[in-house]
Design brief:
9 helices, 250 residues, five-stranded parallel β-sheet, alpha/beta, single chain, membrane, transmembrane, Rossmann fold, Rossmann-like_a/b/a_fold, 14% strand
Length: 250
């Protein structure tokens, strides 16, 4: 019964309701002009597929599987890439919080620090007017999680992955580091590795924050539309486009 309720909800609430509305328009057009109806049907099917976790998990999972998480750390500094932050939101010891992917990266890096004792670079600035400065917030939270301030090097100017790589390379050179352990989300790692190589670095990839389960199971709700699947599909497509651009325009 619970899965039936989830199925009904998926087509009553956005984005599923828009699929039904578009299908209604297809039926209405079919009576007068079949060619536009077929075009709209094709667009509706593509939109529907992008809303399903079957497609979103397949897309994001293919990115996440490009780099395996290593069993041993080989480097002299842990480099964490930002992934979004809020400003003015209450936290235990100040204001501002990391967003979901960035918070997962941060927690993984803290665990790596406890295993290795390597210093930490957090790279990420204030991307939008109403977003938080990622490195500044991360520094406060890292200290709150027990990492000494002297082991934290914030890089708080970068606005995208290319700038993350360039600015991190400069910071590493200033402090005598040469072997970064790169911590970022699995879906973000392929593009990050390309950009860091463009910046003259050969990091050890340490992907975290996985979005797709392994192995992926096929069941009925994989075919129902959801806002989460739309977001994941968009995220994966953004990474693919960014990866193509990074390879073609070094």
């Amino acid at each position: 019964m619970i899965y039936l309720i989830k199925f009904v909800y998926s087509f009553v609430l956005p984005p599923g309701i828009f699929v039904l509305l578009l299908l209604g328009m297809v039926v209405w057009l079919w009576r007068s002009s079949r060619r536009p109806a077929l075009v709209l049907l094709g667009v509706t099917l593509l939109l529907y597929l992008s809303m399903t976790s079957l497609v979103s998990d397949t897309l994001i999972g293919s990115l996440e599987r490009k780099y395996a998480q290593p069993t041993a750390v080989e480097g002299d500094v842990i480099v964490i890439l930002g992934g979004g932050a809020t400003s003015g939101t209450p936290d235990l010891d100040g204001q501002g919080n990391m967003s979901g992917p960035a918070a997962n990266r941060l927690l993984a890096a803290v665990r790596l620090y406890r295993q290795t004792g390597l210093p930490v670079i957090f790279s990420g600035g204030q991307v939008f007017a109403d977003s938080g400065n990622e490195a500044d917030i991360a520094r406060r939270q890292l200290i709150g999680l027990g990492i000494p301030a002297e082991d934290i090097l914030p890089e708080n100017r970068s606005l995208n992955t290319e700038q993350n790589a360039v600015n991190t390379a400069k910071l590493m050179q200033e402090h005598g580091f040469s072997r970064p352990v790169l911590v970022t989300s699995g879906f973000h790692m392929p593009r990050s590795m390309v950009q860091f190589k463009h910046a003259g670095l050969t990091p050890q990839p340490f992907p975290v924050d996985y979005q797709a389960s392994r192995p992926m199971s096929i069941y009925f709700n994989k075919f129902t539309p959801s806002a989460g699947a739309v977001s994941t599909t968009g995220l994966a497509l953004k990474e693919y486009l960014g990866l193509i651009a990074a390879k073609l325009l070094p």
